[in-house]
């Protein structure tokens, strides 16, 4: 991951580099650069240096890919202080969140849903616009249960909500958009209303 090390150096010296890891499953090789260097430089230098680095990485299942290519490892990074994690579900959100990530003074891991690359289309404005990091989106109102999702699984959550509606159950769907910073207020407000919550995650099925 020599190129990522170079991007870290550029960021510390005031550039705004955008790196790409071909698939998030390959990111294990970059843990030292991201978790131990980029994410800690502000704290380590007592605010003297920042690291405005964006790392793009596609991820997620449902695409019949080879080993490592669709691994959903975002939990490893969400637990890293100093590193922000973004996971847009729509093209519109992807542009606005990417521009916000580029403008951010801290490192941002920008996760792109593999299954949406060719399956999802949406009109996106030509001009510049920013969606602030840390704001979840209420994409479907409901009163009986809260479904929390991010990235490509927001579409799955919406489909599930439509199925539940046919059964007389009104599900509220929240798209987190950013995993870190985490919009706890939106989640709490929704769950206080519905009294139930389910989290949809593109995780491994572990077989022993």
Automatic annotation (TrEMBL):
Organism superkingdom: Bacteria
Gene3D superfamilies assigned: 3.40.50.920, 3.40.50.970
Entry keywords, A to Z: Oxidoreductase, Thiamine pyrophosphate
The keyword Oxidoreductase is assigned to this record: yes
Residue span, Transketolase-like pyrimidine-binding domain: 1-119
GO molecular function ontology, one term from the record: oxidoreductase activity
Cofactor(s) annotated in UniProt: thiamine diphosphate
NAD in keyword set: no
InterPro entries attached to this UniProt entry: THDP-binding, Transketo_C/PFOR_II, Transketolase-like_Pyr-bd, Transketolase_C
Alphabetized SUPFAM superfamilies for the sequence: Thiamin diphosphate-binding fold (THDP-binding) (SSF52518), TK C-terminal domain-like (SSF52922)
Protein name stated in the entry: Transketolase-like pyrimidine-binding domain-containing protein
Organism: Dictyobacter arantiisoli
């Amino acid at each position: 991951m020599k190129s990522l090390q170079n991007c870290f150096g550029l960021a510390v010296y005031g550039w705004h580099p955008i790196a790409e890891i071909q698939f998030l499953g390959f990111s294990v090789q970059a843990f030292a650069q991201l978790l131990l260097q980029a994410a800690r430089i502000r704290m380590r230098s007592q605010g003297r240096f920042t690291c405005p680095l964006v790392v793009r990485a596609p991820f997620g299942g449902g695409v019949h890919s080879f080993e490592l290519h669709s691994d959903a490892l975002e939990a490893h990074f969400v637990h890293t202080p100093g590193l922000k994690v973004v996971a847009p579900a729509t093209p519109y959100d992807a542009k606005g969140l990417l521009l916000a990530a580029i403008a951010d003074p801290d490192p941002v891991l920008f996760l792109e849903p593999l299954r949406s690359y060719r399956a999802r289309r949406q009109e996106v404005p030509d001009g510049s616009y920013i969606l602030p990091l840390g704001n979840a989106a209420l994409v479907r109102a409901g009163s009986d249960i809260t479904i929390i999702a991010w990235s490509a699984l927001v579409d799955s959550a919406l489909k599930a909500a439509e199925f539940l509606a046919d059964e007389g159950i009104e599900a509220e769907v929240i798209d987190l958009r950013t995993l870190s910073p985490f919009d706890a207020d939106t989640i709490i407000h929704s769950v206080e209303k519905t009294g139930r919550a389910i989290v949809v995650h593109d995780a491994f099925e572990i077989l022993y």
